[in-house]
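Bench log, entry 3. Co-assembly request; chain sequences pasted below exactly as received.
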Amino acid sequence: MTDWNGKPYHSLDFHLKETFGKKVYKLALDGGMTCPNRDGTLGTGGCIFCSEGGSGDFAASRRPSVREQIEDAKEKLAKKLGDRDVSYIAYFQSYTNTYAPLFYLEELFSSALDCPEVAALSIATRPDCLPEDVLGLLTRLNRRKPVWVELGLQTIHPETARFIRRGYPLETFSDAFRRLKAAGIPVIVHVILGLPGETREMMLETVKFLGDLGIDGIKLQLLHVLSGTDLGELYLREPFPVMALEEYLDLVIDCIALLPPEVVIHRITGDGPKRLLIAPLWSANKRLVLNSLTRRLKERGVYQGCARVKER
Ligand code: SF4
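Structure output for the full assembly:
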């Protein structure tokens, strides 16, 4: 069994300490972009679960300068951290952060990388918004400091993708993934567990597919039904089953067992805004979820990749 500093899975915390040799914090920034699934290019309603904030409800409010946002976020963190030596990841989280002209992206990302304390860039985007010139820019920036790309796939199943109005087929994801990897850029994939109509087997198929593909990192996100979203309206009109805590824990443990040991697990629960949460309400208690997960992993003797060891 591989041990990631006492944890039975390859956590982001462990990965950051190994890579940068110190504590690294993410600063959620707003690049001022929109999304083709919202601005009318592909659709106007967005993905069915997406809130007004473009799935980045914790990002700093819109400001003209990324440097100001970084300084502001650092100041807030400094109150907690004192004068500890830390670094930051500039995280462009809300909306589609490669959906802008090249000159705009170059200015935005370069000014974030120019900050001496920024150790890396993490860019959340859609796989259908990565044209060659943007990929070229990311490749150049990746030579200065590490650049990661986060792709919101959510599921490999076409019927669910249609239901959530994702707006692109799995082939588009696979193609973007292949081009990013060929350019040497690590890819982190977002998956939502608990989407309506998906069985436990379907969710595990998505995770297995990604593990086999060779992704660098994964965010396992429990489905949050949020007010102000179309999914929230649907739930209030015709409530559909949402996951119970125990069910979610067992599913996440099976996902961990399926993932190859080298895949970094960036998230194993949700991070939605409590003020908007309609269901499942237990997910608001993140500490309870994480503590219960650690306990249950130990009880079941599961570690990352153990299902693959058994398969061999
Ligand atoms: S791609 Fe992202 S920002 Fe765009 S609608 Fe979907 S979740 Fe929201």
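The first helix runs from residue 12 to 20. The domain at 12-311 is CATH 3.20.20.70 (TIM Barrel).
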